[in-house]
Each structure stands twice: as C-alpha cells, then as structure tokens.
Specification:
This protein is α/β, with parallel strands linked by helices. The protein is 42% helix and 12% strand.
C-alpha cells in the first residue's frame, strides 16, 4: 500500500486521526524510482527557550546543544502533532530539531544518502529500505540506550525487522496492526451477531449478512499506482494464519514460492473468502473501488457486513465518527484459521535510522523509542505504538486501545507486512497480479506463476 501519509492526504480535510501504516502505517511505500512529481515538503526547526523548564525532569538525560535534522514521509495532520512533541523536547533539552516531511520520501532518501546529504535521522517505514540504507555504509546502528528501550519495552520481533549482520539499526516509532476486521456495531446488533472468535464464527456472521441481502464483505483495492495492495494483505493474513510465522518468513525471503502448495493453498482460501461475487459482490467493481471507500458508507448502511483492513482505516471514516462497541464503527481481531499458531499479528511500523554518530542524534533516537515520547503522543490520538511502557489508559480511542494491547504483547507472534519485505519487482508484481484476479478473472494459479517470474 502507499505510505500511510499519502492516505492522510485523502482525509486530512475532514479528520484529525492519523495514519499504516501506523497509524501505520500500512506501508506500502511509494514506488522507489518512480518519476518524482511535484514535491510536498515541510520543514520546521524548534529552538530551545530553556533547558530547565518545569516538567522537564524526564528529559534530563538528553540535555545537549546543536540541531538534529529528521527526514520522513510524515506530513500533516500527523506532522503537526509530532512537531508539538519535538517542541517540548527542545524546550527541555536544549537540542533543536529540524523536521522535514515529503510525499517523495522513499525516492529522495536514497538520492540524498548517495549524494552525501543524508539527514541525521530518517524515519523509515519499510525494513527493506532500511536494509538498502545499511548497504550504503552510511547508516549507524542504534545506541546502547535505544537498545535498552528495545529490550525492555518491545516484543523481540521488532528488533529482528532492522537487524542486519547482527547489528540493529532502528527501534519502532509508531506501529499498526493489520490483523483487524472493521464492522458496524448497529448492524451486528440488528442481525444478532456476536464478535467472532473463530473462523467458523466469522463464516457464520458472513452467512447472516448474506441472508439479509447484503454482501458479507466490503472490498476495494484501487489505490492509484499501488492498486492491488489490499488484496496482497489478504493473502498475507491467510499465509500467516494457515502456516505460521516460520513459513511466512520463508515466503517473503523467496524460500517458498507463490506456486508452492503452502502459498497457493492460502491464495485459494482467500479466493473463497474474499474472491467470489457471493462474498464481495461484483469482482470487477472490487478492482476499481477505491480502498478508502470500501467500508464507507457500506458498513453503516449495511450494504456490506465486514471489512478486513488495518488500524489506520479509522482515518477513512467521516469526521465525527465514534468508535467502540457502542459507537458508529469498531474493529475486532481477524480470527485464526489454524489454532496451532495462536493469534499472530501482521503489523507495520516506522523506524528512526541514524546517519550520524553525534551524541545528540543518539539522544533523539533514544527519546523517540521511549515511553516519554510515546505517552504524550498517544494522548494526542490517531497513533499507536508497540511500546509496552505506554499505559493503555493513554489511548482514549477504544479501537486504538485494543490495537495497542495487541502490539504490546511481548510474547505473541508478530510479523511485518511480507510484501514490504519482498524485492521491489516481486512486490510490484504482487499488486498487479492480484488486481488481474479481480479485474480480469485470472486464476490464482496463474497469478502465482506470474509473480514467481519476478524473483
């Protein structure tokens, strides 16, 4: 999927909720190497007024001087909230933060790093891009203090996403869960549907919507140049649930091909779940329906029953929408299909990666991975973190509170979006071929073979 900040551009006039992807943030980032369009850049520098202001005790270990430059794809409205946090950091530490956000981040960062103009910190949403930056020799491993935060507050899986040759290059900043199903509490009540705990329960809920004359599932995969990414998520969810994290990871690493019995089997299960007219309505319409319109207004109107989409989809609902079991919309965990693997989560996240060894850069990286930043940011809403040091009471939104609880589980299985980890050519083919399944009726077998040709 496109970087979640591009999703924000869609909704920023009517909502203050944030993104992924990742929000998460789901990713998926802008295609690297695409023609650079008109750039949307924002730059802000925060200047210290005093390093001894009241309420600054928690910042005392980060006192310093100078300016730290941060580059990311995060733009308004999220950027403004983030900059509010930076201003407090500057006031308390004396370290200035110069932030720059752009809608061409994934394209510009490699150019800047190669050209000797790397930022001090880049907030990177794709582990694959982190690896690309490490390969340049310019990226710097995280500091001991940031490693301590990672060890103390995060599920060990998060460290693995940016570990390259035994060294860790980023601790998660924001994070999102993609393993959710959105629904209308009013429609569930009307049809006497309880929250599904098993896949059998999920099928039963779908059957009630079908009997009521509605499409059981809402679906739309149109997303400009990235059309098809929601369908890749559905495949990823099924591979994870059917075969568990180990084979899921072998898949994105290229050790299990799309045409393998395991992956093709999961793809065929998605075909039965979200790939028939009896479940989602006209398949060609799925290919042309904008993903952000997939569940709005269908869920509330009852024309479709459920939507499998990430936590950042909250930003797609109209301004004034209330969330929670008694609200206009709510979300529940997508049930497992194979109880052998428990309740695994497919997540997304962003990782501040350093390109400078200055101590102030390490201080900012440490701060961004700490509960000090996370607690205050969570209170602002529209954002979740995998940091277990952030009390769930910091999240006022009921849905985000549930998401945060999932992400904070330090023992559960968490994997990253597989297509974000695949080579660019395979990722792009995955989007395009899944679109052909809906738009042209291409079989899953042929879809798998076409994608495999890009490894």
């Amino acid at each position: 999927m496109p970087h979640v900040n591009d999703l924000w551009e869609i909704r920023k006039a009517s909502t203050t909720l944030n993104r992924k992807g990742n929000h998460m943030l789901k990713k998926k980032g802008l295609l690297v190497g695409a023609a650079v369009a008109v750039l949307s850049l924002v730059a802000t520098t925060f200047t210290a007024t005093t390093a001894t202001a009241a309420g600054c005790e928690e910042y005392s270990k980060w006192k310093g001087t100078g300016t730290v430059k941060i580059f990311a794809g995060i733009r308004d409205p999220e950027a403004s909230v983030m900059e509010k946090m930076f201003a407090e950091f500057t006031k308390c530490t004396g370290i200035k933060i110069a932030y720059e956000g752009t809608d061409q981040f994934e394209t510009l960062l490699p150019v800047r790093v190669k050209g000797g103009n790397a930022p001090d910190l880049a907030i990177i949403p794709q582990p694959g891009l982190v690896a690309t930056m490490v390969a340049t020799g310019k990226a710097v491993p995280i500091t001991a203090a940031t490693r301590a935060n990672l060890s103390k507050y995060y599920n060990p899986a998060w460290a693995s996403f940016t570990t390259i040759n035994g060294r860790i290059y980023g601790a998660p900043f924001g994070a999102s869960s993609k393993s959710l199903v959105w629904y209308s509490p009013a429609q569930f009540k009307k049809l006497n549907i309880s929250i599904p705990d098993t896949w059998k329960d999920l099928d039963a809920a779908a059957a009630k919507f079908k009997a009521a004359g509605a499409n059981p599932w809402c679906a739309g995969i149109e997303s400009g140049a990235a059309t098809g990414w929601p369908a890749t998520d559905w495949i990823e969810q099924m591979v994870l649930r059917e075969h568990g994290p180990k084979k899921y990871n072998q898949w994105w690493q290229g050790k299990l091909k799309f045409s393998s019995p395991e992956i093709l089997g999961a793809m065929n299960k998605v075909s039965a779940w979200l790939g028939t007219s009896s479940q989602v309505g006209d398949l060609k319409s799925v290919a042309t329906r904008k993903f952000q319109d997939a569940g709005v207004p269908g869920l509330k109107a009852g024309t479709c029953g459920m939507l499998q989409q990430a936590s950042f989809y909250s930003s797609m609902f109209p301004a004034g929408t209330t969330f929670g079991p008694s609200g206009d919309a709510d979300a529940f965990y997508l049930p497992p299909t194979n109880t052998k693997f428990g309740k695994p989560i497919m997540g997304g996240g962003e990782f501040p990666v350093a390109f400078s060894k200055k101590k102030e850069v390490g201080f900012v990286q440490d701060y961004l991975s700490s509960p000090v930043y996370g607690i205050e940011r969570a209170k602002e809403g529209g954002w979740t973190s995998a940091n277990s040091g952030i009390p769930l009471s910091s999240y006022s939104d009921p849905v985000l509170k549930v998401v945060a609880a999932q992400l904070q589980n330090k023992s559960g299985a968490i994997v990253f979006d597989a297509s974000d980890l695949m080579p660019t050519a395979v990722n792009g083919a995955f989007w395009k071929e899944m679109t052909k399944y809906y738009a042209e009726g291409k079989s899953m077998k042929d879809v798998a073979a076409s994608i495999d040709a890009n490894w």
